[in-house]
Amino acid sequence: MSYIAIDLGNKRVGIATCTENIAFPEAVITRTEVVGWLKKYFKNNAGVEKIVVWLPYDLYGKDTRQLDKTLKFTQKLKDIFPEKSIIGHDERFSSFQASQWFNDHRDDIAAQCILQSYIDSIKT
Length: 124
Prior knowledge:
Blueprint: E1 2-8, E2 12-19, E3 22-30, H1 34-44, E4 48-55, H2 65-80, E5 85-90, H3 94-101, H4 107-122
Parallel strand pairs: 1-4, 4-5
Antiparallel strand pairs: 1-2, 2-3
């Protein structure tokens, strides 16, 4: 099974993919490019079955402003890609993990952390 993960920001979107249950950073694109990018990616990679979207809860599991935007975006993805399973994944520390590896925040690395966390959570 193949997955793609999305770290949705207000301006940039990090994307990660996986091979053999190992997540890799794929791209950083602008938010306005997401749907077109995904359509092109799915056309060339038909085996992707799930889209994992980061759900931005705060440290205590409470909603954030970004969560509402992300849930609306997730619904949009469900409408555009009804054949894909859209999974919301709570990964509160993905941005922190990404910034530990690099001096600045890397959206694609954050997406990689989200995807690997999801893969690890279902491998039991």
